[in-house]
Amino acid sequence: MSELDVAVNGGQQIWQGGESPYAIPSNKLGMWLFIVSDSITFGAVLFCYAYLRLASPDWPSPFHLASIENATVMTFVLLSSSVTMVAAVEAAKAGRIAASVRWLAATMLGGVIFDILHIREWLGLIHEGLRLYHNDWGSPLFGAAFFTLTGLHMTHVTIGVIYLCVVAIGFRRGKFTSDDVEISGLYWHFVDLVWMFIFPLVYLLSARIR
Amino acid sequence: MNATAGHSEGPAGMSWFLKVWAVLLVLTAVEIFLAYEELPVHIMLILLMGISLIKAAMIVAYFMHLRYERTSLVWTLVPATIFVLVMMTVFFSDSLRIVRLGLFLH
Questions:
Q1: What are the distances in angstroms from CA B74 to CA A201, B48, B81?
Q2: Which of A13, A111, B25, B84 sees the fewest Cβ atoms within 10 Å?
Q3: What are A207's strand-pairing partners?
Q4: What is the pLDDT tens value at each position of chain A, 210 positions in all?
């Protein structure tokens, strides 16, 4: 990379302003900086969850096989929606607008399916007696920690679906460029990435084995 | 929003992304297998977090394209994130200690 910079810029201008040291659009850098700060937010909530779990000897393990299966399907759907998102970006960069919008729609569908499965999971747990400050299994902190962490993530998925919808409509109308599709993809992959930590920490480590 | 200058040669198309996707699914399957192995909780935590970090790195590198960006961007984003997350584990306990310092109780 650096040899290329020297060749292109004569090794002079890159630190003298008026250049783009990252060679990305400013709104893409903005999204990356947002992702850094958002990953720290999720980091704080995940640390908090892990701390409460280690500090509570009676931490419940309420996730029986049906819950784990449900969460596995959710993981599969979210991972697959990342692939359709990549396909949308590839199509957008190649100028195939209609194909890109179709892939974006598939990604949104993945997000909606994820939300529906997650809400089904929540309702099942609420039906079994899980509340924010009370449950029949053990530490009352479990409800608060579980709903905060998964609720924050579900909010991100929901906002992501709305964001992708706005980008898809704008891209079809020519208001947004392929760069905007790529940037919305960064956000979507980040939401997927966070779930890769929530799934093992919350679900797999609290699986009810017997 | 001008076209990205120097947008370097990306990965080799969709077939490459599908391979990454397949590896991520396999790693997820390994995690679910481990969940039912009744290992001691700290071993399990290390294994699951290790696999999750690999998955996260793959998502960032390929799906989020960071591997094909300029190294200056990687050096700006990744060390800062890791540093803050590590410092959080160091100072996390102060959130409990500060209550006992008497700043709020007097």
A1: 27, 25, 11
A2: A13
A3: A63
A4: 455 555 555 555 555 656 677 888 889 999 999 999 999 999 999 999 988 988 888 999 889 899 999 999 999 999 999 999 999 999 999 999 999 999 999 999 999 999 999 999 999 999 999 999 889 898 999 999 999 999 999 999 999 999 999 999 999 999 999 999 999 999 999 999 999 999 999 999 888 876
With CB atoms and an 8 Å threshold, state whether B48 touches A204: yes
Complex-level ipTM: 0.87
Q: Which amino acid is at A73?
A: V
Give me the CATH number covering residue A48.
1.20.120.80
Probe site for chain A from B70, B74, B86, B88 (most A CB atoms < 10 A): B70
Q: Is residue A3 part of a domain?
A: no
Do residues A89 and A182 make contact, with C-beta atoms less than 8 angstroms apart?
Answer: yes
**A14 occurs within a structural domain:** no
- CB-based contact A205 B73, cutoff 8 Å: no
**Domain membership flag for residue A4:** no
Computed on alpha carbons and rounded to an integer, the radius of gyration of chain A in Å comes to: 21
Token reading at A87: 């396909």
Q: Does A98 touch chain B (CB under 8 A)?
A: no
Buried b or exposed e, range A153-181, using 16+ CB within 10 angstroms:
bbebbbebbebbeebbeebeeeebbbbbb
Query: Between chain A and chain B, how many beta carbons pairs sit less than 8 Å apart?
Result: 127
**Structural domain harbouring A69:** 25-206
- Bridge partners (DSSP) listed for residue A63: A207
Rounded CA-CA distance A66/B42 in Å is: 25
Q: If you measure CA to CA, which chain B residue comes closest to A32?
A: B77
Distances (CA, A) of B11 to A90, A170, B61: 11, 27, 10
**Does a structural domain hold residue A17?**
no
B50: its two tokens: 């290790």
The total number of structural domains in chain A stands at: 1
